Amino acid sequence: MKFLSPLPGSVRSAPDLVALRLREAIFTGELRPGDQLPPEIDLARGFGIALMTVRVALNALKDMGLLATVRGRNGGTFVTNDVGERIAEAARQSPLTKVELRDLTDWRRAISGEACFLTASRASAEDRVAIQTAGDNFDQLLPKFPDVRFADARLHSLIAETSKSENLLRGEIEIQRILTEVILAIEKPRGSKHLTSFSHDPIIKAIAQGNGNAAREAMLNHAEDTFTWVTLLL
Questions:
Q1: With contact defined as beta carbons under 8 Å apart, do 151 and 137 qualify?
Q2: Element (H, E) at 121
């Protein structure tokens, strides 16, 4: 699990950082609705922190409705099945303005565009197969929400991860987290197949061909398509 790694030094408290890592994993589709988290002791070891710190973070996410604990022989901590609705409810309390969405899109063009450019030259054959598989998974889930949104975020996060740039990956994860909130907060998303699935294909094709410039251009077009689509629905 990519989210499970030692925490860096930060002005944030350790419980806040753990909660942030887990939220990002949920919002970007690394942890899906119904998925079981590793045991608390494994989380503590993976993050390099005390068990009590993990419990504080988990309790915070349970209070938000993102996680739930099941008791008994097959129990554990799970991502709630209705996590998409919980995310949407929270996001509707403070929706993005069109100006903020434009700013997010400009940031996305810089981060995601460069990630696609680098991935085209740095991806191994195995990486390219994984990206194609993630794209196929997205298409198969259309138009099922929120699953398709999580699959979309996972695809873009995977592309950024394959760029081999930690800073681009962190930026992409944050962008996808915000986009998940924005898109899931829309009451009845429409037109997602035409505007979203259609524009993934050029990105994946350019990466498969090792064409960085084409991959970046396809990503910029995709970012603008998403901006147009979301703006029309706000």
A1: yes
A2: helix 98-122
